[in-house]
Amino acid sequence: MKCTDLLLQDHKVILRALDVLQQMAKRVEKHQPLEHDDVEAFLRFLRSFGDDYHQCKEESALFPELRRVLRSPEGPVERMLFEHDQERSLVEAVEDALFTKNGPEFVHFAHRLIDMLRDHIRKEDHILFQMIERSLSSEQDEKIVSEFEKFIFDPASMSEFRKLEWKYMRKVA
């Protein structure tokens, strides 16, 4: 399996998580109850899967190799890293709004995070990954996949996310 295939699988999980966040924001917009613990669990999942697992694979294994191949100081890798930092800031803003019990800010930052991450994933899936497949040799790809295998995601966190997904998405379907 190619490194881009593995990242595409991660993106599918992140997009599902964004659907959950969207439902949480809709509840707040409609003045419906939203359990504080659910949002905390969601943010833990987003940080552990989206940042500590997925983005770290990109930043530690893929991007350094891609930089060597592209030899571009201000290219797509830097743009993706910039967006990763913006995403982290938006996660913090969502968390701050949660802890200050500011519903309108929670909704605002949740929507910004959702829009930004969906756009980021679209760019990676349809632009960056095509560039990667054209630029990396099979040996380089295998090296990156081998590096990816060093990153472990806690299955308990995925189980916690699936509970949230079931709770917030079953009423939508």
Structural commentary:
There is one protein chain. The protein is mainly alpha-helical and 173 residues long. It has one domain: Up-down Bundle (Four Helix Bundle (Hemerythrin (Met), subunit A)). It contains 6 helices and no strands. Helix 1 packs across helix 6, helix 2 runs antiparallel to helix 3 and helix 2 packs across helix 6. The two termini are 32 Å apart.
Put the structure in a nutshell.
The protein is mostly helical and 173 residues long.
Which descriptors apply to this entry?
173 residues, mainly alpha, Four Helix Bundle (Hemerythrin (Met), subunit A), 6 helices, elongated
Q: What is the end-to-end distance?
A: 32 Å
Kindly estimate the percentage of residues that lie in beta strands according to DSSP.
under 5%
Mean pLDDT: 94
Number of E-type strands: 0
Note poorly predicted spans.
none
Number of helices: 6
Fraction of residues in H or I helices: over 70%
Reported by name, the CATH topology is Four Helix Bundle (Hemerythrin (Met), subunit A)
Q: What is the CATH domain class?
A: Mainly Alpha
- Given the helix and strand composition, which structural class is it? mainly alpha
Number of domains: 1
CATH architecture: Up-down Bundle
Largest sheet: none
Overall geometry:
elongated
| SSE series | HHHHHH
- Mind telling me the C-alpha Rg? 17 Å
Classify the oligomer: single chain
Question: In the CATH hierarchy, what is the superfamily?
Answer: nmb1532 protein domain like
